[in-house]
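On clarity, I found the account of how folds are encoded harder to follow than it need be. For illustration, here is how one protein appears when written out as sequence plus structure tokens:

:::
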Amino acid sequence: MLYAHPDEAHRQAGVPVQGRSWSDAAYGDENLAGIVWENCEFERVRFERADLRQTVFVNCRFDDCEFLDCRLGETLFSGCSGAGAAISGGELYGVVIAKTQWERLAIARTGRNCVLSESGFGEIEFNGEGARQRALTLSGVCFERLRAENAEWTDGTAVELELANCYFSGAVFTRTALVGAKGRGLDFSEVRFESCNLFQSDFSGSRLRHAPGSIFAESVLEEADFSQAMLEGALFAQASGAKARFDKANLTSAMFPKAALREASFRDASAHTSVWREADLGGANLAGLDAFRGIFRNANMDGAEVSGASFACADLHGVKQSLEGADTREARGTLDWRAELERQSLAT
């Protein structure tokens, strides 16, 4: 039987294309879907408008190759090496690059459900349309540089990402899990984290301005700068944030249960309905803090500055320190509140 494409027989028989080399070649408008390439070499090869859905490249070498307007769907690159490749146009979904060592990977196409796993790169670049990625996963990936200025990543996952090697200026991360991110001493003032999971991350000494609904539980935030940040609904449970600055931040409904916040500053912050249960606020600057209806049950405020703060209608049960100079009208659990209860009890 004759086949329109010389590799069609391999696809029909399920036999990999093995040990072949191409240099300065082009595949145009080819149907290469489902073909397995093993131990092949591609040097300056251009795949243009090729169908590469469910195509598999195993232990192949790619040097300065291009995938232009191709259909890359559930395509697998496993154990590959070389100078790398650039992807632009076409379709990009479910692509997996695993155990691969490339000098450069450039993605200029919007993608979804793509995975980079257990691989090493000199540079990864998401540019143009490639800045928009949905459900992108980075796991066990090492790189010298990751460029994703103005990125829009939604529902993604990146575990223990070395943020010092990333260029994310103007980026927006939405519902993205950046668990264990390493971002010590960096400036994220131009980055937006929207409802992201930053569990057990290190942002000590860093600057952040926008992370509403995000999770910082068990993170290291010592001397971090959240001044004037938008942090509505953010979770800081058991975070370590000694000497962190939250001055004039929006902390509406933010939660700090069991957080270590000694000598942190919350001057003039807005924190309506926020939660500080069992938080350590020893020596903290709470001057001007508006914590209307906040929950401070069993919080430590030893030595905290509270002048001009508002704890109106707040739950202050278990707070043993004096809050003289603060507004505690209709607050529950204060010394005056307990004394009034006792007077009412005696009166009856």
Remarks:
- Residues 59 and 80 are 5 Å apart (CA to CA).
- The two ends are 103 Å apart (CA to CA).
